[in-house]
Write a structure and sequence with these properties.
heterodimer; A: about 280 residues; alpha/beta; Rossmann fold; four-stranded antiparallel sheet; 12 helices; about 40% helix; B: about 300 residues; six-stranded mixed sheet; 10 helices; 10 strands; about 35% helix; globular; binds adenosine-5'-triphosphate; binds magnesium ion
């Protein structure tokens, strides 16, 4: 599985007084099995960009190839694309529509034509992965859930499809810390076990640094840089200038005058602090 | 009407363990044995179906001028509690009073909603007008405030959230943090005594989060009573008090230092420690004797630098 995007642009309300150029001439490649983190200030175009990758939005110009198929071309069956590219939305309210949580999560697998037994297995597995208790939650209405419970149900619906490309728009926003950690480890395991491409949009720099092979940075509709987390988080001033920041461990390392670029998470930070203190004690 | 903000809120910082003693007089918000059940329709015998008991016996006093953070896992009842405080929901049993006004008394509902404002997660859903200052004026206009006074209130509210420069702009051209600050200004223009923030930074970029937390700090300094519901533990470390909910009940309640000392409980409640507290505790396990009670990265960094000298 690969993704290629070339010269993608999208303008909302073109020609009107309040037209917004949300995505402007964006090009990139994603290799098989890559984990991409996408960061950018609010309104920088992240959600608009990724909604093109399973055909929910159509570009004004530019092309998108999923596994070599140009999905902007004529006669492409969108439901075939959506089987392969699963997407969870930033606002889960827009994604939940069935009468019960169970039926909501089963919706995708059912469309894949699976048997009832297989569907049941997938629903249970997906609910387990996002930390939703089956006995307590399966028969409840998705509209009667708390904010964080809705998000977990929406993510479960996507992973139950076992897509080859998993696109997650702020999947941990509004989750409590344990569910946050659980959803991250679920994403990691889907990525590793199934070799899925993951594109994770997040304002959480810590998660992006910890999870991504490569980080894309958006600013005012443009893809302004991409690189490994160490490369991208090396330039703190630039990131601050466009509304972003550093992961807390990297920030702390800077505060202590340690080589911040190499510090991705708290484990790295603790090692670096220990080394620093040993160095001084000698 | 609303009395002056407590003059002695500064005393909270002095290091007393129980914050209540620092606030004089009657609590501003009093929640007594609150139970709230979501119900659906009614079945044949006329009894409503209980769908969910979301708040299960909560009592809580919020002193005027204080900053209370409420945390707890998804579905623990935080938003439901908040909506009971400003009379969007009424208790199934128990009571909620705001400055002595019972939310169940119809005569008080509008006054309570004016006095206790709410700010929600999604900044896009909270703005209604095509121009920032119209949006801020919307609330007071609905209250029938005189035009001159509306102008003054809008001016003051925009200053309070530092958005004066953008007052003529269209909200859709603003960043998320800016939109959220406009939403806060709309509440501030109602001259509330208290504002409940329900995950106000969940959808914001790092800069937007800083901006909103700065505004909350400024409102607090102006004497506004703050209740902040959040999943970001680091947003709670400056609070006077951290309240932890679980399954509809309050399970821990104390200063941030007190609450976050109980690492095992915090974890078993589905939460985590603030960054600096977790770092300090893990450094201690590595034999670096960071003292307990340091809550911010700056404090831990300061200690590390000092102790190395
Ligand atoms: N449906 C829409 N109609 C009109 N304009 C829109 C629409 N959706 C987004 N926009 C505008 O397009 C721009 C890009 O928005 P987008 O939602 O893609 O940004 P984002 O990076 O996902 O932001 P956030 O971090 O807040 O989620 C913004 O200026 C936004 O206001
Ligand atoms: N409209 C509703 N009808 C029925 N039950 C509901 C409704 N809204 C919430 N609940 C249930 O009430 C309980 C408390 O929900 P609430 O929204 O207060 O939680 P919360 O602590 O704010 O969670 P989160 O951190 O996810 O926002 C949950 O079990 C939830 O499923
Ligand atoms: Mg978005
Ligand atoms: Mg909530």
């Amino acid at each position: 599985m690969t993704i290629k995007v070339s010269g993608l642009s999208h303008t909302y309300n073109a020609g009107l007084a309040y037209e917004t150029k949300a995505v402007a001439d964006v090009s990139f490649d994603v290799a098989d099995g890559e984990f991409i983190g996408i960061i950018g200030h609010t309104g920088s175009g992240k959600s608009t960009l990724i909604q093109h990758l399973n055909g929910i939005l159509k570009p004004d110009s530019g092309q998108i190839w999923i596994d070599g198929i140009d999905i902007t071309g004529k006669g492409v069956k969108m439901h075939e694309i959506r089987k392969r590219v699963g997407m969870s939305f930033q606002y889960p309210e827009y994604q939940l529509f069935e009468e019960t949580v169970y039926r909501d999560i089963a919706f995708g697998p059912r469309n894949l034509g699976l048997s009832d037994a297989e569907i049941d297995e997938r629903v249970r597995e997906a609910m387990d992965a996002v930390n939703l208790d089956f006995g307590e939650m399966a028969e409840r209405s998705p509209f009667d859930l708390s904010g964080g419970q809705k998000r977990r149900a929406a993510i479960a619906g996507v992973i139950a499809m076992r897509p080859g490309v998993l696109i997650l728009d702020e999947p941990t926003a509004g989750l409590d810390p344990k569910s946050h950690a659980d959803v991250l480890s679920m994403i990691r395991s889907v990525h590793e076990r199934m070799g899925a491409i993951v594109m994770l949009v997040s304002h959480n720099m810590e998660d992006i640094a910890a999870m991504s092979d490569r980080v894309f940075v958006m600013d005012m509709g443009r893809l302004v840089c991409s690189g490994t987390p160490a490369e991208v988080f090396a330039d703190a001033e630039y990131l601050r200038g466009i509304g972003l920041g550093l992961p807390p461990s990297t920030e702390m390392a800077r505060m202590l005058g340690l080589a911040a670029g190499a510090i991705r998470d708290m484990d790295d930070l603790i090692d670096a602090i220990s080394r620093m203190r040993k160095g001084r004690d000698l | 009407m609303s009395g002056p903000p407590a003059a002695d809120t500064g005393a909270v910082r002095a290091g007393c363990d129980r914050q209540d003693v620092n606030f004089k007089g009657q609590p501003y918000i009093e929640v007594r044995d609150l139970v709230f059940e979501y119900r659906r329709g009614s079945d044949t015998d006329g009894e409503p179906d209980v769908v969910m008991r979301a708040v299960d016996g909560v009592s809580l006093d919020v002193p005027r001028g204080s900053f209370t953070a409420i945390i707890g896992r998804n579905g623990s009842g935080k938003s439901t509690l908040a909506k009971n405080v400003n009379a969007l929901f009424l208790p199934t049993s128990g009571s909620v009073t705001v400055d002595g006004m019972d939310t169940r008394d119809d005569a008080f509902v509008w006054e309570i909603r004016r006095r206790v404002g709410m700010v929600f997660q999604n900044p896009d859903n909270q703005l209604v007008s095509a121009v920032v200052e119209d949006d801020v004026a919307f609330g007071p206009e609905n209250l029938g405030v005189a035009p001159d006074e509306i102008r003054e209130r809008v001016r003051a509210a925009l200053i309070a959230v530092d958005m004066t420069e953008q007052r003529k702009m269209a909200p859709h051209l603003l960043s998320g943090g800016q939109k959220q600050r406009v939403a806060i200004a709309g509440v501030v223009a109602m001259r509330p005594d208290a504002i409940i923030f329900d995950e106000p930074t969940a959808m914001l970029d790092p800069e937007g989060r800083r901006e909103v937390m700065d505004v909350i700090g400024r409102l607090r300094a102006d004497g506004v009573t703050i209740v902040l519901i959040t999943h970001f533990m680091d947003e709670t470390v400056d609070a006077d008090r951290v309240v932890i909910m679980d399954r509809g009940r309050i399970v821990l309640d104390g200063t941030p230092a007190e609450v976050f000392r109980r690492a095992d409980e915090i974890e078993s409640l589905g939460l985590r420690l603030p960054f600096a507290v977790e770092l300090a505790s893990r450094l201690r396990r590595r034999g670096i004797d960071v003292p307990a009670g340091l809550l911010t990265p700056e404090a831990v960094a300061g200690w590390l630098r000092g102790s190395a000298a």
